[in-house]
Amino acid sequence: MTATGYVLSILLLLVCFTGVLGQTSIKQIEVELKDVAVKFDGCEIGREHADRLISSRTISFPMNIESTLTLRKLLEIECGVMDDIYDSGTCLQYEGEAECFYKAMQAEIEKRWGKDFLTSQQRIANRLDKEGKGYIEPQGNGLQALLSAYLSQYAPGRDPQRAYSIVLKISPDKRVLDFEVFHGGLFVAQPIERNSKDYTFIKGVLNSIQIDCEPARLRGKPVESLINLRACF
After folding, report:
1. Model-level pTM?
2. What domain of life does the native source organism fall in (predicted)?
3. Parallel, antiparallel, or unpaired for β 221-222 and 217-218?
4. What is d(CA 139, CA 189) in angstroms, rounded to the nearest whole number?
5. What number of CA atoms fall less than 13 Å from residue 55's CA on the CB side?
6. From CA 194, how far away is CA 226, in angstroms rounded?
7. In a 3-state reduction of DSSP, which class is residue 164?
8. Do residues 138 and 170 make contact, with C-beta atoms less than 8 angstroms apart?
9. pLDDT tens-digit profile of 126-149?
10. Which residues in the chain come in under a pLDDT of 70?
11. CA distance 148 to 13
């Protein structure tokens, strides 16, 4: 849905439920629509989101350009450029929003490392892939099945509709460095508190099962990795 379409829908609801037509002329509604639509300019929203991340020293890979997995992970691991798709944080995304976000990120990358940086890094990534040393995804080695089986056996009375996402940070030598837990609902950006009952419960579960994950590999060597799990209890 475009920004204008979204605003129009809101105004139509106002017309239906508050009788605004009897109080306000069509011309006034059109003027109000134009004024509000300006506030929902997709490109402006995308740029503002990019500026906020850049000011907090976070850079995302510009997904609007052609790339390979090895290139994105090479930049993420070695340069701190996050391999993330654009997330507006809501169920709505306006026309041009993501594209302008990625363009702003590309401009920031070129500002920091030079205009030919992405091209040169892609050549390196292509060479690594050709040599068999490109990025290889981490493997849970059955950890999800173990987690689900444990919860089914030891937490059968807990609500199956309560879904959580668990993100494990694995060291190159397969140790669990840290983990975060997120509620499974849409648009959840912040992890749950580490002193909460649910976090403590999941921590106990992870301490009770065998974790033998295989970290990702890049340049032929294991690298720090994230393993994503799901838990319903």
Report:
1. 0.75
2. Bacteria
3. antiparallel
4. 24
5. 6
6. 18
7. strand
8. yes
9. 999 999 999 999 999 999 999 999
10. 1-40, 90-91, 156-161, 185-189
11. 45
